[in-house]
Amino acid sequence: MTVVAIEHLQLALSGNQVLRDVSFSLAEGECRALVGESGSGKSLTAMCLLGLAPPNAVLNAEQFSVMEQPLPAQGHRDWRGWRGRRIAMIFQNPMTALSPTRTIGAQLSECFRLHRNMDRRQARAESAALLERLAIPRAEQRLSQYPFEFSGGMLQRVMIALAVACRPKLLIADEPTTALDVTVQAEVLALLRELQHEQGTSLLFISHDLGVVANIADTVSVMYAGETVESASVASLLCHPAHPYSEALQAAMPRLHSSEMTVAIPGSPPDMRGTIHGCAFAPRCKHRMAICEDSPPLLASPRGAGVRCWRWHPDYPERWRLQHD
Amino acid sequence: MMIKFVLHRLLWGAITVWFIATATFFAMHAVPGDPLIQDKAMSPAVRAQLEARYGLDKPLSQQYFTFMGNMLSGDFGISFTQENRRVNDIIREHFPVSATLGIAAIAIALVGGVFAGSIAAHYRGQWPDKLVMFMVVAAISVPGFVIAGLAQLIIVRLNAAAESTVLPVAGWGGVNHVWVPALVLGLGTLAYLSRLSRAAMLEVLSSDYILAARARGISGISLFFRYQLRNALLPVVTELGPAVAAITTGGFVVELIFAIPGLGRYFVQAVQQLDYTVIMGTTVFYGAFLVVIVVLVDISYGLIDPRIRLSAGRS
Ligand SMILES: Nc1ncnc2c1ncn2[C@@H]1O[C@H](COP(=O)(O)OP(=O)(O)OP(=O)(O)O)[C@@H](O)[C@H]1O
Ligand code: SF4
Ligand SMILES: [Mg+2]
According to CATH, what is the number of the domain B94-273? Predict the structure, then answer.
């Protein structure tokens, strides 16, 4: 079953086209990473999947479905049954994502009571069991503690518990380890991976760290200026990036066994307040051609990646090389 | 420990009350005027007898220590103007009236303020928000006695139109005597608290934990009471001490205008007539009352904010 199918998703916020063309799919049990620079629209895409885009958002999509059912309109009442139940999300900063005035137990039990119709006692027992499964010591006592009594790593485990409590089909993790100590990042990632396998959940993993992505994901979609510019398997993207922006990202990855300096991508992403004509990456692209003034369609690379770049057009290079010179 | 914290606050409160008592005592005696002037002229002999009765023939410092001694034993003496009436009795009889009015006013201000503030925040920039903010400015800038007069005028018109007494214009007795003056008394505080809750609610609404709670499918009433209101109340509760103080002092005027036999009215009368014992008794009583309220507010703040409750419990 296809768990997520998004085709040509567009989103405007007070007239600014912040998502211009997001397309990707996610199979059952698959982990897809969404990577890209800050502001490329990763979090907004995630929020749309929960119906939580800002109230002034105008959304358009050819296909926007989860578990082969079209999702309700943003902000509509019909999200009951989706949010927290079939789709769940883990946020970047666990220190601010829990209400400071309610105990961990109260917030966790609430999920079981809301989505699985348990009574107070059952929900509490289930909460304790889940925290234990997530390797939180003294789970029973910790249920009556407040978020400020937890460390960042422990809190992110709680957030994971909140997210997987109802065994969602789709789990979205928006930079789940960015706010954590380096020492606990690996633990949290390992736990996430484990749970994903255990529950057969599909995972949409948002990150801008290709190193982490290489560890956890099966497939990657690269976002640039509100567009998915390349979708490929992790191996293909890391070894043979097809889009010039992916190439630049891959080149900018820090390497463990090399003294060679990483190359930062020159230039900056386009201003989303204006209309973008042609390929959005063109001003920073070293392969730019005359035809890049037109928007490139989604093309297939020989290795099976979906790429939005004229260089993968069947007629390239015969037709355009001359225009470039 | 919580108890230690409370005792500490109460000790400071006692010092505050002592300071208020002393300052009031000397300020009162410095005011020109004669507390013993009654309607009739009195003979020097009667006057001397009265002065002796109230201890006014003693030097001021001695009067001060006598007063302090009596106050510590809980006795505020006898009223100058209402002969043979003990100040303690005046307080006992009339404070419950003021307290009823005050509690009603605080309740209206708190519930109304938090409600209006929450609505304004949820509809930020839209007409409900603009309406609330307009009423806030109006309620804060129009003085209380104008609002009181306006309220009475409306009641008079209402009664005339209905050709019966829908609402009493003034006085004290039934439930209908309470809520109009309570609304008038609480209006300024209501306005202030709505502005405060609006700001607090806006902050809560933009927080990560509300987004995260909504992402978990929590919505409607649960979201409002468990997540939004509970967190937005924290800054409001800290302002309850000043709110009670504002309503207590505001009560003096409202009691006069609505002819309510509360303690505030006696306090104002006492000041006008230089009734030394009633001034001292009511001042010290009000001072002590406010000190206790502030401590209670601190405690209740600790009860809703676990960060404060637990750190106070552990230190
Ligand atoms: N609530 C909002 N109102 C207006 N614009 C917004 C809002 N949220 C996001 N944007 C804009 O939408 C674009 C995409 O933002 P988004 O948060 O999805 O980026 P991101 O890829 O998650 O970046 P980061 O790596 O920094 O998290 C940005 O240009 C941002 O300015
Ligand atoms: S379409 Fe042209 S400008 Fe855009 S990435 Fe490809 S080569 Fe570069
Ligand atoms: Mg983001």
Answer: 1.10.3720.10
